[in-house]
C-alpha cells in the first residue's frame, strides 16, 4: 500500500477527515470509540474516514490488546511542505553531490 | 511494540529500497549523519549493546541500550536524553523501528514512547522524526537530503 500525493490531497480534501486529524493531533493514540465521542457522525462513517486517512498514510494504527489505536502520521505532510518550502530556506550542500554514487554502490546494494 | 506508553507517537513512511539497504542506513553512523540533521548514532549493534546519539560538535545528545536487534526487521532502543536536565529527568523511553517489505518499497514504522503523561522529551523528538524520516526517504530514493545537517545543537 504505497501512497502518492493524490491520495494525500484527496484524503485532506474533506472537512470531517481534517477534523479527525485535528483530534489525533490534540490527543494521539485514540481508538475508534474515542474518536466517535462528541462527533456528529456514525461509527461507520468515522471508520470509513479513518480507512481513507490510513490509506493515504496520514494516520498509523497499532493494536493494543483488543483495541486498535490511531496515531497521526505527519511524515507525508512534512514531505509536501519540504517539496515547496525547503528550497527557500537551505542552500544545497555540495558534499551531497557524490552521495548518489555512494548509495548506488555495491556496499549498499 | 511498547504498549501502554503514556506519551507516544507512531510514524510511518514508505521508502523505495530493499529492507537490507534501509537497515544499513539505520545503523551506519556515517550514513545516518547525512539524514539525522548532522547528529550521529553510534552503538554496539547487538542486544544489550550501548547506544548513543552524538551532536555534530561531539557532545552526547542521548544515551541508551539496544533492546531488540533483528536485521532487517526490528530494532528497539531504550533511550534517554542526556543533555537537557529537564528531559533527562523524564527517564527512559523506548524507540522501536520496524521494517516490512510492501511491493517495491519498505514500510518503516517508528514508534517512540515513555511512561509519563505530557512528556516534553516525546514532544521534542516527535518534531524531529518527520524531518529525519523525510531526509532518509529522500536520501535513499534520490541521493540527496531535503534538510542539510545542522551546524550546532538545537
Keywords:
heterodimer, A: 109 residues, mainly alpha, Arc Repressor Mutant, subunit A, two-stranded antiparallel sheet, 2 strands, B: 154 residues, alpha+beta, Alpha-D-Glucose-1,6-Bisphosphate, Chain A, domain 4, seven-stranded antiparallel sheet, 4 helices, 28% helix, 37% strand, globular
Q: Report low-confidence residues of chain B grouped into runs of 5 or more.
A: none
Q: Which CATH class of chain A?
A: Mainly Alpha
- The count of strands of chain A amounts to 2
Give the number of domains of chain B. Answer: 1
Chain-averaged pLDDT of chain B: 90
Q: Which percent range fits the helix content of chain A?
A: 40-55%
Distance between the termini of chain B: 29 Å
- Radius of gyration of chain B from CA coordinates: 15 Å
Q: Describe the global form of chain A.
A: globular
Helix content of chain B: 25-40%
Q: How large is the radius of gyration of chain A?
A: 18 Å
Would you kindly provide a written description of the structure presented here, covering whatever features stand out?
The complex is a heterodimer of chains A (109) and B (154). By secondary structure, chain A is mainly α. Chain A has a single domain, classed as Arc Repressor Mutant, subunit A (Orthogonal Bundle). In chain A, 54% of the residues lie in helices and 11% in strands. Chain A has helices at residues 5-12, 15-26, 32-36, 43-55, 75-89, 99-104; strands at residues 59-64, 67-72. Chain A has a two-stranded antiparallel ribbon with strand order 1-2. In chain A, a hairpin with a 2-residue loop joins β1 (59-64) and β2 (67-72). Chain A starts with a helix and ends in a 5-residue tail after the last helix. Residues 91-98 of chain A have low confidence and may be disordered. In chain B, a hairpin with a 3-residue loop joins β4 and β5 (74-81). A 7-stranded antiparallel β-sheet of chain B has the order 1-7-6-5-4-3-2. Chain B contains 4 helices and 7 strands; from the N terminus they run βααββββαββα. Chain B has one domain (7-142): START domain (Alpha-D-Glucose-1,6-Bisphosphate, Chain A, domain 4), CATH 3.30.530. Chain B has helices at residues 19-27, 29-35, 85-88, 120-142; strands at residues 7-15, 40-43, 50-54, 60-70, 74-81, 93-102, 105-114. Chain B is of the alpha+beta class. The longest helix of chain B has 23 residues, at 120-142.
Amino acid at each position: 500500500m504505497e501512497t502518492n500525493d493524490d491520495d494525500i490531497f484527496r484524503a485532506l480534501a474533506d472537512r470531517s477527515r481534517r477534523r479527525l486529524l485535528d483530534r489525533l493531533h490534540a490527543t494521539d493514540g485514540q481508538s475508534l470509540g474515542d474518536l466517535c465521542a462528541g462527533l456528529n457522525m456514525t461509527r461507520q462513517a468515522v471508520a470509513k474516514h479513518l480507512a481513507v486517512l490510513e490509506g493515504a498514510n496520514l494516520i498509523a494504527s497499532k493494536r493494543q490488546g483488543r483495541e486498535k489505536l490511531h496515531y497521526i502520521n505527519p511524515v507525508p505532510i512534512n514531505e509536501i511542505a519540504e517539496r515547496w518550502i525547503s528550497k527557500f530556506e537551505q542552500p544545497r550542500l555540495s558534499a551531497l553531490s557524490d552521495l548518489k554514487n555512494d548509495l548506488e554502490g555495491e556496499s549498499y546494494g | 511494540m511498547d504498549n501502554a506508553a503514556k506519551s507516544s507517537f507512531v510514524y510511518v513512511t514508505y521508502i523505495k529500497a530493499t529492507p537490507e539497504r534501509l537497515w544499513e542506513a539505520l545503523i551506519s553512523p556515517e550514513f545516518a549523519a547525512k539524514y539525522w540533521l548532522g547528529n550521529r548514532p553510534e552503538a554496539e549493534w547487538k542486544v544489550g549493546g550501548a547506544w548513543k546519539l552524538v551532536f555534530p560538535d561531539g557532545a552526547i545528545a542521548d544515551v541508551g541500550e539496544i533492546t531488540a536487534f533483528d536485521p532487517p526487521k526490528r530494532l528497539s532502543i531504550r533511550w534517554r536524553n542526556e543533555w537537557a536536565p529537564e528531559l533527562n529527568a523524564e527517564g527512559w523511553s523506548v524507540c522501536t523501528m520496524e521494517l516490512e517489505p510492501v511491493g517495491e518499497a519498505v514500510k518503516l514504522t517508528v514508534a517512540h514512547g515513555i511512561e509519563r503523561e505530557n512528556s516534553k522529551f516525546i514532544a521534542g523528538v516527535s518534531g524531529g522524526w518527520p524531518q529525519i524520516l523525510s531526509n532518509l526517504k529522500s536520501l535513499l530514493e534520490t541521493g540527496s537530503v531535503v534538510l542539510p545537517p545542522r551546524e550546532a545543537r538545537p
